Amino acid sequence: MTQLPGLLDTEAIRKDFPILDRLVHDGQKVVYLDNAATSQKPAQVLDALADYYEKHNANVHRGVHVLAEEATALYEGARDKVAAFINAPSRDEVIFTKNASESLNLVANMLGWADEPYRVERDTEIVITEMEHHSNIVPWQLLSQRTGAKLKWFGLTDEGRLDMAGIEELITERTKVVALTLVSNIMGTFNPVEEIVRRAQEVGALVVVDASQAAPHMVLDVQALQADFVAFTGHKMCGPTGIGVLWGRQELLNDLPPFLGGGEMIETVTMHSSTYAPAPHKFEAGTPPIAQAVGLGAAVDYLSAIGMDRIHQHEQALTEYAVRKLQEIPDLRIIGPATAEDRGATISFTLGDIHPHDVGQVLDEQGIAVRVGHHCARPVCLRYGIPATTRASFYLYSTPAEVDALADGLEHVRNFFA
Amino acid sequence: MYQEVILDHYKHPHGRGLRDGDAEVHHVNPTCGDEITLRVRYDGDTIEDVSYEGQGCSISQASASVLNELLVGKELPEARRIQETFLELMQSKGQLEPDDSMEDLLEDAVAFAGVSKYPARVKCALLSWMAWKDATSKAFSGADASAQEPGEADSAKEKTT
């Protein structure tokens, strides 16, 4: 078996993930390489979900009975865990949403309804990048269309990185908000957020970071990042679906208006008007995803016990190996950075003229799960003149043997369509 | 699901390329980015030509090739029967075992029966067929102002105005 420096003890880790023993298509063990879409869940998270529903289920922040108090403590305890996980200065800066898309839409709507100086309106500008997930494009297009603000974006270099050349002309005094991804969901690229934050701060623009592909894989420190908002989702980091996070700086959350109205987010309500609860509750209208938050808390515990820096190291080693192995395959073209430097464990590629859906289907017949298509980042495919890519993405339980299985599988695909 | 017949149509497609038509449509399959531009040309009720250009997976491309082979030269009612039967087969979730009459009607298209077990791929197989249906209704309603050559549809429109 291939040994690489920096690898985690995957044999032990894989025992925590029951689904990795799943057999598909006549008894083949599933090789799960679709982690950028969603991660698998360890027993610790599954148990936390079951335990919550079996022993503590109640609505939060309402009843005075014992179950309600336990449910509230568990829900708010999950907030503490997430706050510590991202090094938030205050737990009140952590807003639970249903996913990263909702988090990003929430910010866009806060800024659309805000007073000066945050208000996005005609004669102001929004800056995004060409490598965003659709969830960090469409909310800004909507805001732009509704307010008349101009939408601009960073283009991409041939190597799959942000073209930083025109940053001064792009982010200007008119810029109200810059929204970008920390790690590309299609190419794995790490973006130079620091330089962009510095420029945004010079002109007084807010910075929104989509950390959906970063939070599961590396240390995420919102204070070091210096952004104003950071969004990510639970299901890509061993948590359940239906739970996302928006972190925002306290003073912004105090100043900005709520978006969704309802129970939970109010202080007092009359038939004429209402006053609002302080953040984070101001932004959490209605019954929240309680069990899901508890599950995310368990996921954060699980990842922290292993160590995010060690998970990052593991994936770096694996990425280096995978990039090398894939480049040995004739006609394979990596879309995005072609080396393991400044990139994550998500690798997109094309294989000659074979359509990614055919690649994915023939890999599936061998038990190998990858993602095919445009990965909700269609502008990237347009930029590189391709209809779609095949994407393999790794996580803490992925092994060099799975990289080998992928490489062998791709050889089989080539022969099949030759 | 990758029957020899399908791979064969994929590698050696019939009637590929755009030629003159009465109506043109462009259909996409947003889940995977398959695209097809398809034109139909009618002589009365007879399908004179179905021409197409597109990109996509082997299933979508092979399906367009089969469609061309199967429908060109047919009368519209017969073509509709084929299209509806193919649709029924593709929506069968692998539960429908094609019988002799279906095989006679669908010819090579029967090879797609296996695709119906894969929900994600059914749309690929149906892309060109939906485009054909759409183009045909456009041709006969005369709604397509950008038709390459005035055919039956346009003259029919002229008669009504």
Automatic annotation (TrEMBL), chain A:
<dbReference type="InterPro" id="IPR015421">
    <property type="entry name" value="PyrdxlP-dep_Trfase_major"/>
</dbReference>
<dbReference type="InterPro" id="IPR015424">
    <property type="entry name" value="PyrdxlP-dep_Trfase"/>
</dbReference>
<keyword id="KW-0663">Pyridoxal phosphate</keyword>
<comment type="similarity">
    <text>Belongs to the class-V pyridoxal-phosphate-dependent aminotransferase family. Csd subfamily.</text>
</comment>
<dbReference type="GO" id="GO:0016829">
    <property type="term" value="F:lyase activity"/>
</dbReference>
<dbReference type="InterPro" id="IPR015422">
    <property type="entry name" value="PyrdxlP-dep_Trfase_small"/>
</dbReference>
<dbReference type="InterPro" id="IPR010970">
    <property type="entry name" value="Cys_dSase_SufS"/>
</dbReference>
<keyword id="KW-0456">Lyase</keyword>
<dbReference type="GO" id="GO:0031071">
    <property type="term" value="F:cysteine desulfurase activity"/>
</dbReference>
<feature type="domain" description="Aminotransferase class V">
    <location>
        <begin position="31"/>
        <end position="406"/>
    </location>
</feature>
<dbReference type="InterPro" id="IPR000192">
    <property type="entry name" value="Aminotrans_V_dom"/>
</dbReference>
<dbReference type="GO" id="GO:0030170">
    <property type="term" value="F:pyridoxal phosphate binding"/>
</dbReference>
<keyword id="KW-0808">Transferase</keyword>
<dbReference type="Pfam" id="PF00266">
    <property type="entry name" value="Aminotran_5"/>
</dbReference>
<dbReference type="GO" id="GO:0006534">
    <property type="term" value="P:cysteine metabolic process"/>
</dbReference>
<protein>
    <recommendedName>
        <fullName>cysteine desulfurase</fullName>
        <ecNumber>2.8.1.7</ecNumber>
    </recommendedName>
</protein>
TrEMBL record, chain B:
<feature type="region of interest" description="Disordered">
    <location>
        <begin position="140"/>
        <end position="161"/>
    </location>
</feature>
<dbReference type="GO" id="GO:0005506">
    <property type="term" value="F:iron ion binding"/>
</dbReference>
<feature type="domain" description="NIF system FeS cluster assembly NifU N-terminal">
    <location>
        <begin position="1"/>
        <end position="124"/>
    </location>
</feature>
<protein>
    <submittedName>
        <fullName>Nitrogen fixation protein NifU</fullName>
    </submittedName>
</protein>
<dbReference type="GO" id="GO:0016226">
    <property type="term" value="P:iron-sulfur cluster assembly"/>
</dbReference>
<dbReference type="InterPro" id="IPR002871">
    <property type="entry name" value="NIF_FeS_clus_asmbl_NifU_N"/>
</dbReference>
<dbReference type="GO" id="GO:0051536">
    <property type="term" value="F:iron-sulfur cluster binding"/>
</dbReference>
<dbReference type="Pfam" id="PF01592">
    <property type="entry name" value="NifU_N"/>
</dbReference>
